[in-house]
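Blinded run. Sample ID left blank on purpose so nobody reads anything into the name before looking at the predicted structure. Input follows.
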Amino acid sequence: MTPGKRKVAVVGVSLSDCGRVDDATPYALHAQAARRALADAGMDRSLVDGFASAGLGTLPPVEVAEYLGLHPTWVDSTAVGGATWEVMAAHATDAIAAGHAEAVLLVYGSTARADIKAGRRTGNLSFGARGPLQFEVPYGHTLIAKYAMAARRHMHAYGTTLEQLASVAVQARANAALNPEAMFRDPIAVDDVLSGPMIADPFTKLHCCIRSDGGAAVLLAAEEYVRDCRTAPVWVLGTGEHVSHTTMSEWPDFTVSPAAVSGRLAFGRAGIRPEEIDVAEIYDAFTYMTLVTLEDLGFCGKGEGGAFVEKGRLLVRGGELPVNTDGGGLSAQHPGMRGLFLLVEAVRQLRGEAAGRQARRPDGELPRLAVASGTGGWFCSSGTVVLGR
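Blinded prediction complete.
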């Protein structure tokens, strides 16, 4: 934090009901998560003067704020896909540190699974066919195809194997088995991943995130409020954000994600080295995202991600670097823009509130430092937040 500015803490976090939620609207999930986060902090909603939301309504976050009965004097509706919430957390931290807000609530909710089951929406093949995207969409260049192409490039350049990618899904499921809130908890093996139905070469079904319903909320506040909150503070130590491309032909290197920039900025501003991190929560719409983000955040060298994810390194139980400790988007929940769930899980781990999936340092103590790194679009954007207790 820049000298002379206020420190900022996460004082409340929560999830709404998640998984299979057939009887709630996205607005209701927003409200449920928001109420629970405020209760977690022990803070009255009248103290919330900042609000950030994206993905719902014609005028987000105006509609959602109205639904929640909030009248903020600071708002953010940044929408950069899955990285939205880490980027919003960075903006909120800057606003609070500068005195432009006192307490900012970040909220998300989606009924993506229920809407498809009920026929209220269909699975989208693309995000649109205007602007630069018009040159790719006519050729069936779907979102998953873009991730699959990037994974194939990494395999070609560095010898990364299908088994190594599959091990990411296996370890995510093992972590989910410890999480009673996870949607899928039955163990899987590498062979299960490899033998599944092909979705987009090289990704079979279990290489891909699940589709769920659910919401999340995170409450950030100035340091003056911390002493009156119910929970121990988790401090925002550093943040970074970066946008890379929207057209694949404008992406200089398919093996380098925008986390290479956002991570460097976040760690530099926090004064923390990657090797000091105890827990990492990483956006995992596909197994390759986890692998390449670990490289780009500096946990291993470029091209070494395949070897790094092998042999249980990502496990809560016995892993050298517990990653996606709740089971991630591959097994726990993925209702859409999942970045806010990363922040919730990172905070719970640092506060020692992760129940049966609680990670520990080698000395048996609770984690002291965590990183949450969200990715948006098809590696189009990244936001990284370093947290500490």
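Unblinding after everyone has recorded impressions. The longest strand covers residues 234-243.
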